[in-house]
Structure formats: structure tokens, C-alpha cells
């Protein structure tokens, strides 16, 4: 029922009580019926790209619902902060809301502007406090409160008080990169400028660009301060045309004399009352618990202490507490990172307390004199009033904000916002990666503004590729294989950024870095971005063409039916192949990717120089394909919902089982794999799961293997190439495993067998396939109730994707670690396939063929 222009859900749908998967994405739904909560068997509900502002509380009762797609809806109930917590957070919120709803009259007023324009003084005047002509400059962030009566409460007989949190940001440029984490659409912005120095000196364009990029739907009030003989003067109409829908009005106020303060206060009252999330309903217990957090006297607390505080307020279940904490984290009321081993043991209850300590580093002349190197011994001076464990926490939090990264000896951190502006001599080093046998990929970004943190956040994020050649607006990066290098540069005057990668096969390294840069840009949802691909043609004198094709236009040409695969360069009037322009910049489609891999596999047959090059290309292409497969599989899932490893390798427990057909009661082994792109491998020394060839195997495992086999099959030839042997000389056990999986699918009953027998081959995964991933998770959880997953760790990479990795590959992404060499290897378990082994099994089953009476381990159900 996708893309049918539905304005309401048909009644017949809510009567399908056995429905498990429902997709209503890309319609015009403004609401959902309460009756949708009667679909008790629903596991997936896709509502993306509709017009929903609220969800019915009955959705909270769908206990089987594990996937809830809500992207592209202007939701206020549940609020975006809850939606960001994932499906469980939404279900919990709606369930509790259905019991005890209460409206929340709270929001945020953010005050920004250049230093010394009077931000702190104006806030004090709005609260009725006395003016201090010697008011000190704000360093970092100050949060306080402001209570105002609602101008038009729902019931005039019951006055409503709006409780506003006022966020006063330091105006110095060094703090701007830290501001961005606290600027949200649910706020009203007061942008102050000094009437005596003028609006241009107040950098109104710069600040409006920042707000538009970070909080594009938030209203902005321009406030002129320091009133005097020179009246405020600015081109308001021109600014409103440049930033349509952003500027709510222009006022003036003088905190010293009080002139205009009352008008500003009244306008603030009117504007915050119109904010979309003002007055939204929250569960009563959640609101009480949130208020307890906001009024808690301490700056920080242990998670256990926070749990006790929430329990006292009425939120007692751990899952409910986690959802509420995730919402408060998104709101900026607290900071907590439960999945970070170094940050999970502390909850920051006052973000301004943390930013105050970080500001000391940004203000440090000692760190600046070291070229941005913050030696951890400096912490004993800069943070002398904080215990040593807290100092470690501050360092890790700076890394989490992409403000710094630890050096390899872990005794210092490089603060990227303090890097020098002038670039070091890098051209000679960059040129060593050019020449014969290499290719360069380039992608240029044209931005409407270059916001703080670009590209410094990216430099910190990709620290594992770092070299000493880095500066405030660029860096030279190098892949651990030594053969590939990258250059990221930003031109603030031209408002452009450019990513270039060179090497024998730069496509995969480029894909990783492009993901990382795109992830950095996503912190600014309102940023206007045009992506440009340079034309590869040259003029008659060999000079490169100056024309650049719009990336979006190239992608759209290939998406047409039939595809338009050629485009003319308007400079030289030559036709250029569109797939060539996008090669390495956009991943090839599934069938094209497989075709390229097959061509390479057929050539990899020796360890001669040419063979080594082909193997390097093959390894990189496999990494590209594997990364794309996992991206497709998980594209509907948040990080929190990547529930279990995605790769399963199937083995027959005993070779005494005849033939390739499924035998009644026959037992198979399920091995988990590390998901490091380009280096998928079985886990050594890990006890496999065991499962008989019954319902769980044929209805869950075999269809799931069908999804992964098209990608897994390329693990074998890459393994052979890395050992320097022809693919036919590989371990017979491994080849038997692959043949077995194919043969089982050939003879499998039902849809899985028919699809494979018909020759269907694809590496992309449709949304419907996520149900198979969920079924696999349920099965693995039965086999492994503790969810140890063979020691695999869930790692969210700096580029965004989440993988389940072995310890060695997980270390690749640790702060300050040296990247693992870029090689591909398939490591078999120590015990050869076919030998009897004890494994983890579902309880209650019979022995399979070939199993002895002395076999240990739990068995699958009968």
C-alpha cells in the first residue's frame, strides 16, 4: 500500500488480525486509526514520508512490533527526541501516555551572537534582574530559566506557565563548534547584534546561515542591543528574502536603561507559545521524572543514581528509564552514552558544566602554542578542580564531540579546533601517490555556508587515517595499505569542500571517507549542498576540463527507463560515459557489482605483480560489495535496532550424512562471522550453534542464507588470492560448505528454494527482507540467550554504519589505535568441517544422524 496517495487507512486493513508486515510509506496520511492497535501480530510497520503529527497510543500495545519506520513525518507526539530513541522508545512512550497523559509546557530559548553584544545582560533583564555593567564574558555555555504566562491557554480559566530554559552561548568563534550539538528546531532563537557597530559587524548572515543549517525550522528574533545615539538600522526585508520563513521579527532593547525589554519579553512569550512542541502530551510519570532530573542539584551522577531518581518519580522499569534518558539526552537536558565503554559510567546532568571544562582547553594558550596538542598532563592544571576519573571523562567527551582525538601513545589529544590555519607543505607527499597505474576520484561540495566543525570534525572522525599533514581547513589522509591517500580541503571564501582519493583502486577508500564526510554534514540538516563531479576530458593542449557535472543529475540519468548513460560536456562538446563518471563515487548496482567481481575472480590465479594488483582490486571490490549489502539490509534500522550479527555460515555436522539433501533430524552448525567489510571471516575457536533440519532451519535459516550467499561466495576466491593459490586449490572443507549451502537451497522447500533454483541473484535487500533478519535474531536468541554472539562486538563506525566485529577488527575503530592492515582473510575454525563437535542447541531435540550417545550440548526442539 505504498505511494497510493492514501489520506486514511482503509477499514479493511485494521481487520487483518493476522497481519505481520504493513507498509504505508509515501502516502498522505495525517492520522492513524486507534484500531491499528488491534493488529497484535504486527512486527513491522512502515509509515515513512506521510503527514503524521501524532500516533495513536494503541500502538504502544503492539508487543511484537520491532520495526517502526517514521522518517519524513512532522511528529509532535511522540516528540522527535523519543522517535530518535528507536522503536522500543516509541512503544514505551505511547503505552505510558495512554495511561497518564499530561501536557508539557516547556521549551528552549537560545541566545546567540558575537561576543560582547550583551546576550547575558539581556537575559538578566528579561528575568527582571539588575543590570551589571561589568558583566563578564560567557565562556562556553550558561543555562538558566525563564517562566512566562501562556498568552492563550487551552482553558482561559486555568492559566498556564511556560517554563523556558535559556541557553546563553559564548560568542567567541572557538566555541562555535561546540554550540552545534545543542541547537535544535524545538527552540526560539534570539540573535543579538550591536546597534553601534552595525549589523554587518554583528555577522548576521553568518549566524543566520548557522541557524538555517542546524535548526532550519526554528523561528529567529533579531534583537539590536547597546542602543544609543545611532538608531538600529538593518536591511530587514533583504534578510527575510534571503532566509524565507526563518526571521520572525526584528526588535531592539537596551539592558542598561530597560528600553525595549518589555517588548522583547512579550514577543518571546508569543513566539514560544507557537512552537510546535509547546504543550505536547507526555506520560505523567515521565514528566515528573524529567522535572526531577532538571531540578537535581548535582552536575553529574552515576547511572545507578539516575535510575533511583527516575524510580522515585514513578519510572521504574529499566526499559522505560532507558527510553526517557534517551529523550532527555536528545533534548539536551542531560548527556549519557550507554554504549560507550568509557562514557557509560557517568551521566552529565548539566551540559553547561561539561562545556565549561572543555572551554578551558579551547581557551588554553599552552595548547594553542603546541599546535593544538593537548598533553594529558595539562589536565592537572586546566582541570585541577576535577578528580582524575572526571578528567578522563572530559577527554573522551571531547572525542565523542569530534573536537579531538588521542595520539597513538595515548598521552595526548590533538584538538582539531586549535590546528593552525596555514597548511603545511603537503603537495610533494600528495604527488607521490599519483602517476602510472593510479587513479584519482574527486567529489566537490558547494555549500551555502561553511559551518563550524567543517572539516575539523571530519579530521577527528577519520583519525585512524591521520598523518602529520593537517590544518584547520584540510588534511592529508593515508590508508594503512600505504598505496592510497586522500586529501580533504575546504575553501571558506568559495564555500566549497573537496574530497580527493588517489591510488591503484581508490573506490573503496573513497567510499569510506565519503560516508564519513556525509555523516559530518548531516549534523546540519538545513545545509544547502550541491555535489559536483569533475569532467575527465582535456582540451587540445592537455589541460583538464573546468566543467563539473551535478552529481544528482548523473544519478537521475541512470535511474531513468531506459538509463541515459552518456552526457555531453558543454565545454568540449564531447560525450562522457555516466557510469564512468560515477564509478567509485556511487556504488554499482547489485548485478553490475557481481559482474565486475566475476571478471576479477577469473583473473586471480597467481601471485605475480599483475596478480597482486588484481587481488588488491578484488579485495577492495569485495569490501565495497559487502559494505553495500549490510547497508541495504539495515537501511530501515537505527543503530539501536541492529540486534544481532547478520552473517551466518552453515555447515553439516557429519559427513556421514549422504548426498546433498536434507535428512530428517539431520543437524547443522551455524557459525557467526565477523562483518568487517572486505574481511568477513569465521570466528576461530568459537563453539558453533547447532540446529536440526526442521521447521526453524527450513523456514528461517535457508531463506536467510539465500540473502547472504550471493555475497558470501566471493569470500572464497579472495581468501585464495590472499594465500597465493588458485581458487580451485582452496580448502576442500570451505568449498564443500559453499556447495552444501547452494545444494540445500536447490532442494529447499518453499519460496527460498524456488527463488534460488530460478537463478535469482541479487545483493540488494528489499524492505520485506528485514522480517527474515528479525526471525533470524529470534532464533539466534533462543540458541544464545545471553546474546554473547561468539564474542562479537557491536561497533558503530565513525562513518555511520554499524557492524558486529571480532576483537581485532573492533580495535580498528578505537580512539588512538593504529588501523588494522587492509588485508582479506577467511579464518576457518580449528575443527575441520564434518568432524563431530559439541555445540549450543535449542533444548528438547533428538540426536541427528552421525551423532554419538556421548555428544554434549543442548539440542534443537523436536
Task: Describe, in plain words, how this protein is organized in 3D.
This protein is an alpha+beta fold. The protein contains 28 helices and 32 strands. A seven-stranded antiparallel beta sheet has the order 18-19-20-21-17-22-23. A six-stranded mixed beta sheet has the order 6-7-5-8-9-10, with helices on both faces. The longest helix is centred in the last third of the chain and has 25 residues, at about 610-635.
Defining traits:
single chain, 862 residues, alpha+beta, 6-stranded mixed beta sheet, globular
Summary?
The chain is an alpha+beta fold and 862 residues long. The chain is globular.
Look at the helices and sheets and give the structural class. alpha+beta
Q: Gap between N and C termini, in Å?
A: 39 Å
What fraction, in percent, of the residue positions are helical? 25-40%
Please work out how many helical segments DSSP would assign: 28
How can the largest sheet be summarized? Answer: 7 strands, antiparallel
Strand content: 15-25%
What gyration radius follows from the Cα positions, in whole Å?
30 Å
Largest beta sheet: strand ordering? 18-19-20-21-17-22-23
What is the residue-mean pLDDT, rounded to a whole number?
81
Amino acid at each position: 500500500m505504498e505511494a497510493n496517495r492514501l489520506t486514511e487507512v482503509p477499514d479493511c486493513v485494521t481487520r487483518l488480525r493476522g497481519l505481520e508486515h504493513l507498509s504505508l510509506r509515501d502516502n498522505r496520511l495525517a492520522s492513524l486509526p486507534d484500531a491499528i492497535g488491534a493488529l497484535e501480530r504486527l512486527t513491522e510497520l512502515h509509515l515513512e514520508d506521510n503527514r503524521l503529527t501524532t500516533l495513536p497510543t494503541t500502538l504502544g500495545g503492539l508487543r511484537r512490533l520491532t520495526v517502526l519506520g517514521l522518517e519524513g513525518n512532522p511528529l509532535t507526539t511522540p516528540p522527535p527526541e523519543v522517535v530518535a530513541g528507536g522503536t522500543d522508545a516509541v512503544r514505551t512512550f505511547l503505552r505510558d501516555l495512554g495511561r497518564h497523559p499530561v501536557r508539557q509546557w516547556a521549551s528552549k530559548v537560545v541566545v546567540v551572537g558575537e561576543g560582547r553584544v550583551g546576550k547575558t545582560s539581556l537575559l538578566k533583564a528579561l528575568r527582571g534582574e539588575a543590570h551589571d555593567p561589568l558583566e563578564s564574558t560567557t565562556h562556553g555555555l550558561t543555562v538558566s530559566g525563564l517562566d512566562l504566562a501562556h498568552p492563550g491557554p487551552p482553558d482561559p480559566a486555568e492559566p498556564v506557565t511556560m517554563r523556558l530554559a535559556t541557553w546563553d552561548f559564548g560568542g567567541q568563534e572557538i566555541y562555535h563548534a561546540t554550540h552545534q550539538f545543542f541547537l535544535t528546531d524545538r527552540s526560539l532563537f534570539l540573535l543579538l547584534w550591536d546597534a553601534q557597530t552595525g549589523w554587518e559587524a554583528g555577522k548576521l548572515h553568518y549566524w543566520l546561515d548557522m541557524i538555517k543549517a542546524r535548526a532550519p525550522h526554528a523561528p529567529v528574533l533579531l534583537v539590536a542591543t547597546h542602543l544609543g545615539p545611532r538608531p538600529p538600522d538593518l536591511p530587514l526585508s533583504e534578510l527575510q528574502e534571503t532566509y524565507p520563513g526563518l526571521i520572525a521579527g526584528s526588535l531592539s532593547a537596551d539592558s542598561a536603561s530597560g528600553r525595549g525589554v518589555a517588548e522583547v519579553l512579550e514577543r518571546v512569550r508569543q513566539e514560544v507559545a507557537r512552537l510546535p512542541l509547546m504543550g505536547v502530551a507526555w506520560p505523567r510519570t515521565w514528566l515528573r521524572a524529567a522535572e526531577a532530573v532538571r531540578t537535581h542539584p548535582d552536575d553529574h551522577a552515576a547511572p545507578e543514581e539516575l535510575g533511583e531518581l527516575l524510580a522515585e518519580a514513578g519510572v521504574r522499569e529499566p526499559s522505560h528509564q532507558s527510553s526517557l534518558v534517551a529523550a532527555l539526552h536528545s533534548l539536551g537536558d542531560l548527556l549519557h552514552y550507554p554504549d560507550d565503554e568509557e562514557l557509560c559510567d557517568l551521566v552529565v546532568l548539566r551540559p553547561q558544566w561539561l562545556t565549561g571544562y572543555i572551554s578551558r582547553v579551547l581557551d588554553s594558550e599552552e595548547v594553542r602554542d603546541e599546535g593544538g596538542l593537548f598533553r594529558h598532563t595539562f589536565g592537572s592544571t586546566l582541570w585541577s578542580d576535577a578528580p582524575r576519573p572526571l578528567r578522563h571523562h572530559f577527554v573522551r567527551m571531547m572525542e565523542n564531540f569530534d573536537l579531538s582525538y588521542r595520539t597513538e601513545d595515548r598521552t595526548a589529544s590533538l584538538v582539531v579546533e586549535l590546528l593552525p590555519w596555514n597548511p603545511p607543505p603537503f603537495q610533494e607527499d600528495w604527488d607521490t601517490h599519483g602517476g602510472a597505474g593510479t587513479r584519482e576520484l574527486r567529489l566537490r561540495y558547494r555549500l551555502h555556508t561553511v559551518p563550524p566543525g567543517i572539516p575539523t570534525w571530519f579530521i577527528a572522525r577519520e583519525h585512524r587515517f591521520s598523518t602529520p599533514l593537517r590544518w584547520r581547513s584540510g588534511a592529508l589522509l593515508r590508508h594503512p595499505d600505504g598505496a592510497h591517500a586522500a586529501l580533504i580541503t575546504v575553501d571558506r571564501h568559495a564555500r566549497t569542500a573537496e574530497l580527493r582519493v588517489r591510488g591503484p583502486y581508490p573506490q573503496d577508500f573513497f567510499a569510506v571517507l565519503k560516508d564519513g564526510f556525509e555523516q559530518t554534514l548531516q549534523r546540519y540538516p538545513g545545509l544547502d549542498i550541491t555535489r559536483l563531479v569533475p569532467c575527465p576530458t582535456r582540451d587540445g593542449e592537455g589541460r583538464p576540463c573546468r566543467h563539473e557535472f551535478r552529481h544528482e543529475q548523473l544519478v537521475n540519468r541512470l535511474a531513468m527507463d531506459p538509463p541515459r548513460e552518456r552526457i555531453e560536456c558543454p565545454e568540449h562538446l564531447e560525450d562522457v560515459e555516466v557510469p564512468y563518471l560515477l564509478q567509485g563515487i556511487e556504488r554499482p548496482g547489485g548485478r553490475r557489482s557481481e559482474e565486475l567481481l566475476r571478471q576479477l575472480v577469473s583473473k586471480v590465479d597467481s601471485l605475480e605483480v599483475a596478480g597482486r594488483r588484481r587481488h588488491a582490486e578484488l579485495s577492495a571490490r569485495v569490501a565495497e560489495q559487502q559494505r553495500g549489502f549490510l547497508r541495504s539490509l539495515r537501511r530501515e534500522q537505527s543503530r539501536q535496532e541492529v540486534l544481532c550479527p547478520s552473517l551466518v555460515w552453515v555447515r553439516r555436522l557429519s559427513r556421514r550424512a549422504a548426498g546433498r539433501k536434507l535428512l530428517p533430524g539431520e543437524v547443522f552448525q551455524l557459525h557467526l562471522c565477523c562483518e568487517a567489510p572486505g574481511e568477513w571471516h569465521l570466528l576461530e575457536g568459537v563453539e558453533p550453534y547447532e540446529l536440526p533440519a526442521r521447521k526453524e532451519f527450513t523456514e528461517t535459516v535457508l531463506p536467510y542464507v539465500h540473502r547472504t550467499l550471493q555475497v558470501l561466495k566471493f569470500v572464497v576466491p579472495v581468501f585464495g588470492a590472499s594465500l597465493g593459490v588458485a581458487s580451485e586449490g582452496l580448502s576442500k572443507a570451505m568449498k564443500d560448505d559453499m556447495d552444501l549451502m547452494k545444494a540445500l537451497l536447490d532442494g529447499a522447500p518453499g519460496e527460498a528454494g524456488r527463488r534460488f533454483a530460478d537463478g535469482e541473484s541479487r545483493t540488494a535487500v528489499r524492505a520485506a527482507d528485514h522480517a527474515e533478519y528479525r526471525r533470524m535474531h529470534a532464533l539466534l536468541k533462543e540458541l544464545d540467550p545471553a546474546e554473547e554472539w561468539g564474542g562479537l562486538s557491536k561497533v558503530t563506525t565513525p562513518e555511520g554504519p554499524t557492524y558486529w566485529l571480532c576483537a581485532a577488527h573492533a580495535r580498528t575503530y578505537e580512539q588512538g589505535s593504529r588501523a588494522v592492515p587492509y588485508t582479506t582473510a577467511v579464518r576457518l575454525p580449528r575443527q575441520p568441517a564434518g568432524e563431530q563437535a559439541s555445540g549450543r542447541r535449542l533444548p528438547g531435540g533428538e540426536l541427528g544422524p552421525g551423532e554419538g550417545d556421548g555428544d554434549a550440548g543442548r539440542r534443537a526442539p523436536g
